[in-house]
Amino acid sequence: MPNRGFTLIELLIVIAIILIIAAIAIPNLLHSRIAANEASAVSSIRSINSAEVSYQAAYPTHGYAAKLADLGGGSPCTPSPTSACLVDRFLTRGVKSGYNFAATGTDRAINGILMNYTTGAAPVAYNQSGIRWFCSTSDAIIRYSPNVSRRTTPPSSTECHSASPLE
Questions:
Q1: Which of 70, 101, 129, 146 could disulfide-link 65, Cβ–Cβ 3.0 to 4.6 Å?
Q2: For 97-121, what is each residue's pLDDT tens digit?
Q3: CB neighbour list of residue 37: distance below 8 Å, 6 or more residues apart
Q4: In terms of pTM, does the model score above 0.85?
Q5: Element (DSSP H or E) covering residue 137
Q6: CB within 8 A of 11, min separation 6: which ones?
Q7: Considering only CA atoms, which of 115, 57, 101, 59 is closest in space to residue 82?
Q8: If DSSP codes are grouped into helix, strand and coil, which group holds residue 69?
Q9: Which of 72, 56, 74 is nearest to 64 (CA)?
Q10: Alpha-carbon distance 165 to 135, whole Å?
């Protein structure tokens, strides 16, 4: 009775077919992950915008939060001006879903109240976790940049104002 089995050529053909399918599928999976990370970044910017408005209402003698960490808090969280318990702890750490985040209070008035804020998000690894960066200021308009400089740090207030509004 002859041995039944696969020849070396048959195995190489099967491996070649698997590699071709993988070469087609993997870039699409990476692009899908980038799109999901960017959508998450925009959602997080919206959350920060809402938290900043709530923070300003809760602590009118402070104005907007001085930094992103002031909007969060530990567990269990007791609201205060330095831990307002308004955003989740992952976001207040500054990194979430492949994006770096920052939020800073700006335009300090004579009485010490922060009159505006800027929040931004940039990919942790350009072209792997994201491509574009996103930002918003106290006008709550979310803006973006195609990020041709491939930066991984969130934009400044000036850069945010010169970015395109997200539609």
A1: 70
A2: 999 999 999 998 889 999 999 999 9
A3: 97, 98, 99, 123, 129, 130
A4: no
A5: strand 133-137
A6: none
A7: 59
A8: helix
A9: 56
A10: 9
